[in-house]
Predict the 3D structure of the following.
Amino acid sequence: MEMLGRSIVSIRDFPKEEIQTIVQKSLEVKAGKWSGVLKDKVLATLFFEPSTRTRLSFESAMVSMGGQTIGFADANVSSAKKGESLADTIRTVTGYCDAIVMRHPVEGAARLASEVATVPVINAGDGANQHPTQTFLDLVTIQEEFGRLSNLRIGMLGDLKYGRTVHSLAKALSLFGAQQVFISPPSLRMPGYTQEQLKQVGADYEEIEDISELTQELDVLYVTRIQKERFADFQEYERVAGAYTINRSAFEVLGEKCRVMHPLPRVDEISTELDETENAIYFRQAHNGIPTRQALLGLVLGVIQ
Ligand code: CP
């Protein structure tokens, strides 16, 4: 696998074997291998949209491996506010750092940035499109929990239309033979273009509207927030807001062993009564952002092989 200098834009750019290697490297980093290897490297974090986990875990990953970070967490304090194009911002910042992590509201922005930059660009979320590093940390968490990525039955619940994390994750899981169940209101179904891509790789999936329609228990329920900020019509948001809340009684249909994941932030789609249960693995999932992003940075900067 050649990762040196490579941008991470879409999970579709990674074949199954490369995904497995990245998951393995992340677990090696978590086990303590490869410490301090990013000394003298600089990461630019360009966040044109809000973030807690992605930005802070990238920054923590960089600092904890000896590197440094520059950047902004709000587009309003960058020269984008003065009308600078994204291409010109990237052409400039590429000269200040060894890698760029960028979150942007426009789908395709990360691809454009990767074509302009002379350093690797890591997509930290582009609109409702993709969030590949979230998928890598999701897979690291699944591998840790089940000891495998293959032959799992995984439900994805909530906003499957605008939720970029599930777009990336569904594509990755399809490479590992997962049985996937997409659970959403009709207006928030997995987009047609994503379903087409899943069909092309022979993905095994079904769509239902509520967990009460499940015919088999799940290994994992991956819950997502309704993405209020992406709705053009607020009334449409209000129609679906609060459509789902997973609480203890849900496990009667999910199965007692079902693990609950969530990319976070959570609003009200998972009851806090689950937080201390063995089923809830969403905070460990968030913490796996550190070793996963350490591994990805080390790989694209050529210090982890
Ligand atoms: N999961 C995730 O992307 O969280 P943030 O929006 O806080 O970065």
In short: Residues 51-54, 125, 134, 263-265 surround phosphoric acid mono(formamide)ester (CB under 6 Å). The mean pLDDT is 95. The chain has eleven helices and nine strands.
